[in-house]
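re: that complex we talked abt at group meeting.

here r the seqs, copy pasted straight from the sheet so there may be weird spacing, ignore it
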Amino acid sequence: MLAAVRSALEELVKEKGSEYVTVPMIAERAGVNPSSIYRRWGDLPTLINEIATYRLDPARPLPDSGDLRQDLLAWAGELVTHYSIPVNAALLRAGAATAGEQESDCLRNRRSEAVMFVERAGAVIGSDEIIDHIVAPVIYRVIFAPWTLTGETAAGLVEQLFSRTP
Amino acid sequence: MLAAVRSALEELVKEKGSEYVTVPMIAERAGVNPSSIYRRWGDLPTLINEIATYRLDPARPLPDSGDLRQDLLAWAGELVTHYSIPVNAALLRAGAATAGEQESDCLRNRRSEAVMFVERAGAVIGSDEIIDHIVAPVIYRVIFAPWTLTGETAAGLVEQLFSRTP
DNA sequence: TTCCTAACGCAAAAGGGTTTGCTTTACGGA
DNA sequence: TCCGTAAAGCAAACCCTTTTGCGTTAGGAA
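got the structure back, here u go
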């Protein structure tokens, strides 16, 4: 059932936007009963939040070429590719609405990945800078200006980050 | 009526989060009839989007000291101050959910302001860089990690932007 | 002042979302 | 195999949201 609900939600969120999706809609598309969804998740925002979280597998292998810049380039490209898929972008937007005072899972993973890169490379660059100047611009574009997200976005951001004076 | 609805929505969005606000709630708090809201805005997402837009007055005077860096610093500080107010942050998050294929008004203004700075200063820096490395990090923090938004955030970002090799 | 129009209040009705009690199914351990 | 438990289906009831028709009010133009 989880799988059916997940893909139903993904489809609907892409088709209509998360504000216009309802529990009965999801239930019908998933071939389950609305009451099953209510019992399991309580309400729609909770459901959306949970589904939006289980994306971009935290256990996937990270780039490890030995060169920080190379790795960041691959990693950023991965990020862009992921959110270029409309479903993922829509879920991110939905997650943004429910984010708030505590860190949302969506991005905790991104932060910890950034920390790992930095530690592995020996702090030539700060993890905050990776978040501010690579992750943030990408996420910002995904949410507010998806059409500015291109194949060159990732490379451009990494290059700018590395062109700063040391 | 617009004013009453606006402040009612702002209060409720701050109290409950935008997902849990309904039209009748807003109507009651604003002292108006729900049907008036429906006739004027059509539905809740539209209302939220419009209210979230009319913030950070587009007609306000922009910093103009003659020095680009100085101006950007003041401008970024304004942005941070604005979104440090919980109501404004909540409205931004709500707006994020409804943003999508066309540019949301929330940030069109920011973009045009950036363009103005660049033109006035004679293109020593690109407007895209201002968006990517100042606006985006701020907005990202507002939405996903509000507690990382401090008094030094704006200054730090501007400094980093200017420390790049020309 | 009078008329016209647009916006709002009011109330009833329609529609859809949510809750709830009960039944049925599926799975795992005696 | 035979329970016992947890999850899901089903259907009815409940409640809130949304729509709609109509009366009222406010503001502007003749």
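couple things i noticed - The mean pLDDT of chain A is 88. The radius of gyration of chain A is 18 Å.
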